[in-house]
Design goal:
Length: 148
């Protein structure tokens, strides 16, 4: 039987399982933040974790009122209001992501799409202290041995 992987905390936790739990917690946090801000949260959320970032794709995000506006040709108005809501929630949701990841959020970007009804929330995290730039990358990543 293969040896159990150890995480950075050396408690014998499986880092893959921990990543899945963290991604689910982040998805739930972002859904709740949008629900607090807009009155309705998305019905689907999927979080992808990177070395220095968190990427959350949300589906079915718009309220009935936003759908009505978009159907009446006011999609740009819906997008503008969404951007304002996201600016309002930025500080709180960034704090929540920091608490979950244990890392500072140094950048937050957000965008929406009307048809299909999608949104993305991107949190750029402070690089890890032992991180070195990956070849061809603008952001530092974890150190990896050459040849791997």
């Amino acid at each position: 039987m293969p040896a159990k992987r150890t995480g950075p905390n050396d408690r014998g936790e499986d880092p893959i399982a921990h990543q899945g739990e963290l991604a689910a917690a982040i998805s739930n946090t972002v859904v709740k933040a949008l629900a607090r801000t807009t009155g309705r949260g998305p019905t689907k959320a999927k979080t992808t974790l990177g070395d220095n970032g968190v990427f959350v794709v949300l589906e079915d995000t718009m309220t009935k009122g936003e759908h009505s506006l978009a159907d009446a040709g006011e999609g740009q108005l819906v997008l503008d209001v969404r951007r304002r809501w996201q600016a309002v929630m930025e500080a709180d949701v960034s704090r929540e992501i920091e608490a979950l990841t244990g890392r500072k959020v140094v950048g937050f970007m957000s965008d929406n799409h009307i048809d299909p009804d999608l949104a993305v929330e991107v949190f750029v995290l402070e690089p890890l202290p032992d991180a070195a730039p990956e070849p061809g990358s603008l952001l530092p990543g974890p150190r990896r041995p050459h040849g791997h």
